[in-house]
Design goal:
By secondary structure, the chain is mostly helical. It is built from five helices and four strands; from the N terminus they run αβααβαββα. It has a two-stranded parallel sheet. A two-stranded antiparallel sheet has the order 3-4. The structure holds a DNA duplex.
Length: about 110
DNA sequence: AAGCTGACTATGG
DNA sequence: GCCATAGCCAGCT
């Protein structure tokens, strides 16, 4: 594939879309999957552009390493992200996923290669 | 072209 | 254990 890396952002979108329903992941996990662990900030930045995509990006399944809905403020409503996660069976309190470690899902590495 | 930004993470006090 | 600071990198102005 000649254009495997159109942009760093698209890499993020692909991974986020791979997140199974009822699961969540962290920015660091995605960044690590992309091979750019230190670009964890870019992951969030990429999701910021998700609204420009025609594809639906389950950005609500992406939280920070503490399981906190750090990006909830970027949704239509500050509670939308929480409601979406609760709808998937997660337990959210204080903007933090209680069953975070149970719901945590790490993207596989041998999938893109 | 150069500097700022940012949905993070790690480290130090 | 919580708050402050630094490092990070890639897109945006």
């Amino acid at each position: 594939m000649a254009e495997e890396s159109s942009s760093f952002f698209e890499r993020v979108y692909e991974v986020v879309k791979e997140i199974p329903h009822g699961k969540v992941t962290t920015y660091g996990a995605i960044a690590k999957h992309l091979g750019t662990t230190r670009s964890s900030r870019m992951v969030g930045w990429a999701l910021n552009n998700c609204h420009t995509l025609e594809d639906m990006i389950p950005a609500h399944r992406v939280v920070n390493r503490l399981g906190v809905l750090s990006g909830a403020a970027h949704f239509g409503t500050p509670t939308l992200m929480q409601e979406l996660l609760e709808n998937e069976g997660h337990i959210i309190e204080e903007n933090q996923i209680k069953n975070f470690k149970e719901a945590l899902w790490i993207p596989p590495y041998s999938e893109h290669d």
